[in-house]
Amino acid sequence: MESRYTINKHFMEMTGYYDRNGKLCTLVTETGRTFIVDKSPLEIINDNIICVGYDLKGATKTARSLLGNIYICPILVNPIDRIVLFPTLSSKHSECVWYNPVHIKRTSSLNRQTFIIYSNGRTKLIKDKLASFNCKIKQAEQLEDMTKI
Protein backbone atom coordinates (compact mmCIF):
# COMPACT_ATOMS: atom_id res chain seq x y z
CA MET A 1 0.00 0.00 0.00
CA GLU A 2 1.32 3.41 -1.00
CA SER A 3 0.98 6.39 1.36
CA ARG A 4 0.64 8.95 -1.46
CA TYR A 5 0.41 9.06 -5.24
CA THR A 6 1.36 11.49 -7.97
CA ILE A 7 -0.91 11.25 -11.01
CA ASN A 8 1.32 10.80 -14.04
CA LYS A 9 1.12 9.99 -17.76
CA HIS A 10 0.76 6.24 -17.00
CA PHE A 11 -2.39 6.77 -14.91
CA MET A 12 -5.43 5.01 -16.44
CA GLU A 13 -8.10 4.97 -13.72
CA MET A 14 -8.79 4.99 -9.99
CA THR A 15 -11.73 4.14 -7.77
CA GLY A 16 -12.61 4.05 -4.10
CA TYR A 17 -11.67 0.91 -2.20
CA TYR A 18 -12.53 0.13 1.41
CA ASP A 19 -9.75 -1.60 3.36
CA ARG A 20 -10.45 -4.26 5.98
CA ASN A 21 -10.96 -1.55 8.62
CA GLY A 22 -13.58 0.24 6.53
CA LYS A 23 -11.30 3.16 5.59
CA LEU A 24 -11.81 4.61 2.11
CA CYS A 25 -8.61 4.14 0.13
CA THR A 26 -8.00 4.16 -3.63
CA LEU A 27 -7.36 1.41 -6.13
CA VAL A 28 -5.12 2.97 -8.81
CA THR A 29 -4.49 1.40 -12.21
CA GLU A 30 -1.57 2.51 -14.34
CA THR A 31 -0.55 1.03 -17.69
CA GLY A 32 1.81 -1.45 -16.03
CA ARG A 33 0.55 -1.96 -12.48
CA THR A 34 -2.38 -1.79 -10.07
CA PHE A 35 -1.99 -0.82 -6.41
CA ILE A 36 -3.74 0.68 -3.39
CA VAL A 37 -3.11 4.19 -2.03
CA ASP A 38 -3.96 5.03 1.59
CA LYS A 39 -6.02 8.10 0.61
CA SER A 40 -9.44 8.64 -0.95
CA PRO A 41 -9.66 9.48 -4.68
CA LEU A 42 -10.58 13.09 -3.92
CA GLU A 43 -7.63 13.43 -1.52
CA ILE A 44 -5.29 12.17 -4.25
CA ILE A 45 -6.74 14.60 -6.80
CA ASN A 46 -6.63 17.53 -4.38
CA ASP A 47 -3.03 16.74 -3.34
CA ASN A 48 -1.97 16.65 -7.01
CA ILE A 49 -3.74 19.91 -7.86
CA ILE A 50 -2.26 21.68 -4.84
CA CYS A 51 1.24 20.65 -6.00
CA VAL A 52 0.82 22.76 -9.14
CA GLY A 53 -0.50 25.80 -7.33
CA TYR A 54 -4.28 25.71 -7.12
CA ASP A 55 -7.05 23.65 -5.48
CA LEU A 56 -9.87 21.25 -6.32
CA LYS A 57 -12.56 23.87 -5.79
CA GLY A 58 -10.83 26.26 -8.20
CA ALA A 59 -10.23 23.51 -10.77
CA THR A 60 -13.91 22.54 -10.66
CA LYS A 61 -15.02 26.17 -10.94
CA THR A 62 -12.74 26.71 -13.94
CA ALA A 63 -13.97 23.57 -15.70
CA ARG A 64 -17.63 24.53 -15.18
CA SER A 65 -16.91 28.06 -16.37
CA LEU A 66 -15.40 26.72 -19.60
CA LEU A 67 -17.77 23.80 -20.25
CA GLY A 68 -21.00 25.13 -18.81
CA ASN A 69 -22.59 24.22 -15.52
CA ILE A 70 -22.43 20.45 -16.00
CA TYR A 71 -23.08 18.10 -13.08
CA ILE A 72 -20.34 15.49 -13.54
CA CYS A 73 -17.40 17.66 -14.50
CA PRO A 74 -13.91 16.69 -15.71
CA ILE A 75 -10.95 18.18 -13.84
CA LEU A 76 -7.61 19.47 -15.10
CA VAL A 77 -5.34 17.77 -12.56
CA ASN A 78 -1.98 18.79 -13.99
CA PRO A 79 -1.77 21.66 -16.51
CA ILE A 80 1.95 21.06 -17.07
CA ASP A 81 1.57 17.43 -18.19
CA ARG A 82 -1.92 18.10 -19.65
CA ILE A 83 -3.66 15.47 -17.48
CA VAL A 84 -7.44 15.73 -17.35
CA LEU A 85 -9.57 13.20 -15.44
CA PHE A 86 -13.30 12.62 -15.60
CA PRO A 87 -15.60 10.89 -13.09
CA THR A 88 -18.36 8.39 -13.82
CA LEU A 89 -20.53 9.51 -10.89
CA SER A 90 -20.59 12.41 -8.47
CA SER A 91 -17.03 12.85 -7.22
CA LYS A 92 -18.28 12.41 -3.63
CA HIS A 93 -19.73 8.96 -4.38
CA SER A 94 -17.50 6.13 -3.10
CA GLU A 95 -18.12 4.04 -6.25
CA CYS A 96 -17.02 6.85 -8.58
CA VAL A 97 -14.32 5.84 -11.05
CA TRP A 98 -11.94 8.50 -12.38
CA TYR A 99 -10.58 7.92 -15.90
CA ASN A 100 -7.77 9.40 -17.95
CA PRO A 101 -9.23 9.75 -21.48
CA VAL A 102 -5.75 9.57 -23.05
CA HIS A 103 -5.58 5.83 -22.31
CA ILE A 104 -9.09 5.00 -23.58
CA LYS A 105 -8.48 3.88 -27.16
CA ARG A 106 -11.90 2.50 -28.06
CA THR A 107 -15.37 2.14 -26.58
CA SER A 108 -18.27 0.05 -27.80
CA SER A 109 -21.67 -1.07 -26.60
CA LEU A 110 -22.11 -4.57 -25.22
CA ASN A 111 -25.45 -5.59 -23.69
CA ARG A 112 -26.38 -1.96 -22.94
CA GLN A 113 -23.07 -1.46 -21.13
CA THR A 114 -19.78 0.10 -22.26
CA PHE A 115 -16.82 -2.03 -23.27
CA ILE A 116 -13.51 -0.12 -22.94
CA ILE A 117 -10.22 -0.97 -24.64
CA TYR A 118 -7.21 0.75 -23.06
CA SER A 119 -3.93 1.80 -24.65
CA ASN A 120 -2.12 -1.13 -23.02
CA GLY A 121 -4.58 -3.67 -24.45
CA ARG A 122 -6.52 -4.27 -21.23
CA THR A 123 -10.30 -4.27 -21.42
CA LYS A 124 -13.12 -3.48 -19.03
CA LEU A 125 -16.92 -3.67 -19.09
CA ILE A 126 -18.73 -0.95 -17.12
CA LYS A 127 -22.39 -0.28 -16.37
CA ASP A 128 -22.49 3.16 -18.03
CA LYS A 129 -24.33 3.45 -21.31
CA LEU A 130 -22.06 4.07 -24.29
CA ALA A 131 -23.50 7.49 -25.22
CA SER A 132 -23.17 8.78 -21.65
CA PHE A 133 -19.61 7.51 -21.26
CA ASN A 134 -18.52 8.88 -24.65
CA CYS A 135 -20.02 12.27 -23.75
CA LYS A 136 -17.86 12.34 -20.58
CA ILE A 137 -14.77 11.51 -22.65
CA LYS A 138 -15.60 14.30 -25.10
CA GLN A 139 -16.07 16.84 -22.29
CA ALA A 140 -12.68 15.88 -20.81
CA GLU A 141 -11.04 16.25 -24.24
CA GLN A 142 -12.72 19.65 -24.71
CA LEU A 143 -11.45 20.83 -21.31
CA GLU A 144 -7.92 19.74 -22.19
CA ASP A 145 -8.14 21.55 -25.53
CA MET A 146 -9.64 24.74 -24.03
CA THR A 147 -6.92 25.03 -21.36
CA LYS A 148 -3.93 24.71 -23.68
CA ILE A 149 -1.46 27.51 -23.19
State the oligomer: single chain
Pattern of helices and strands: EEEHHEEEEEEH
Largest sheet, in brief, is:
6 strands, antiparallel
Please give the count of helices.
3
Question: Helices, strands, pairings?
Answer:
Layout: E1 11-18, E2 24-30, E3 34-37, H1 41-51, H2 56-67, E4 75-78, E5 83-87, E6 97-99, E7 104-110, E8 113-118, E9 123-126, H3 130-146
Antiparallel strand pairs: 1-2, 1-6, 2-3, 4-5, 5-6, 7-8, 8-9
List keywords for this structure.
149 residues, alpha+beta, six-stranded antiparallel sheet, three-stranded antiparallel sheet, 3 helices, 9 strands, globular
What would a concise description of this structure say?
The chain is an alpha+beta fold and 149 residues long.
Summarize the structure in words.
Helices cover 27% and strands 32% of the residues. The longest helix is centred in the C-terminal third of the chain and has 17 residues, at 130-146. The chain is built from three helices and nine strands. With 149 residues, the chain is of the alpha+beta class. It is globular. A hairpin with a 4-residue loop joins strand 4 (75-78) and strand 5. The protein has helices spanning 41-51, 56-67, 130-146; strands at residues 11-18, 24-30, 34-37, 75-78, 83-87, 97-99, 104-110, 113-118, 123-126. Strands 3-2-1-6-5-4 form a six-stranded antiparallel beta sheet, sandwiched between helices. It has a three-stranded antiparallel beta sheet with strand order 7-8-9, covered by helices on one side.
